[in-house]
Amino acid sequence: MPKSKPFPTNRSRRTPTRPEATEERPDPQPGTVTAITGQVRDPERVSVFIDGVFAIGLARDVADAFGLHKDQVLDEAQLADLLARNQLHRATTSALNFLAYRPRSEGEIRRKLQQGAYPQGTIEQVLERLREWRYVDDEDFARRWIENRNANRPRGERLLAQELKAKGIDSDIMAEALEEAGIDEGAGALSLARQRARQLRDLEPAVRERRLTGFLARRGYGFDVIRATLETLDTEDEELPQGDPK
Questions:
Q1: Domain residue limits, the chain
Q2: Does the chain have fewer CB atoms within 10 Å around its N or its C terminus?
Q3: What are residue 70's DSSP bridge partners?
Q4: CATH number 3.40.50 is the correct assignment for the domain at 138-181
Q5: Does the fold of domain 185-239 match that of domain 138-181?
């Protein structure tokens, strides 16, 4: 049976030798806190030394909330609690920085934190915090995504659904958001096709039709919508006076 690691009792209380350490050692050990020093590069963080050896870099808020102080004896359970708190703080900070650029879905944040190798339990705690702070809301995210696409880059419901799925949006939330949006695919496809047709006006009709079909398909419109759009364009072409440029 393997022996458990002994509780350190006779380490010399040396003067700290790594005042600018930023994260924890690979194997921080229980013991007595011999120093807590501010970090020069980041005043919001402190370096904690246990039995004279650098053990962990902490957010100052984490240390204060834990009540960490010099000469405090940390056993294994207390040290594990401190490390968990610090990890949660780091993961939360990473998520908030990720959100600073634009709104994110829960799925995007979860993937971001998974890339940072945070445990699943920590990730779920972060998401719970963000929900409480109303920093993430997948229903609102889906509505805003659809509104933005419709206003700036129209596309069919099929492509919108693919995009939202890639963001990790639940299928029920996605379906409800699409229904609420009341997207007029015919109008959107026709508007796009008219713009694109002007760029293709010098091509042969059959070539232009193929190009328009592919263009609208890539924008997520189905065959029925595309066919109706092309028929409308053909009708508009026939109604133009001969020699009248589009």
A1: 11-74, 138-181, 185-239
A2: N
A3: none
A4: no
A5: yes
Contacts of 26 (CB under 8 A, 6+ apart): none
Structure tokens, 127:
């998401």
Amino acid at 136: V
185-239, CATH topology level:
Arc Repressor Mutant, subunit A (1.10.10)
pLDDT in tens, 128-171: 999 999 999 999 999 999 999 988 888 999 999 999 999 999 99
Q: Coil, strand, or helix at residue 193?
A: helix
Q: What is the pLDDT of residues 35-92, one digit of tens each?
A: 999 998 898 999 999 999 999 999 999 999 999 999 999 999 999 999 999 999 999 9
Q: Which of 53, 9, 20 is nearest to 35 (CA)?
A: 53
For the chain, the 3-state helix, strand and coil shares in percent, each to the nearest 5, are: 55, 10, 35
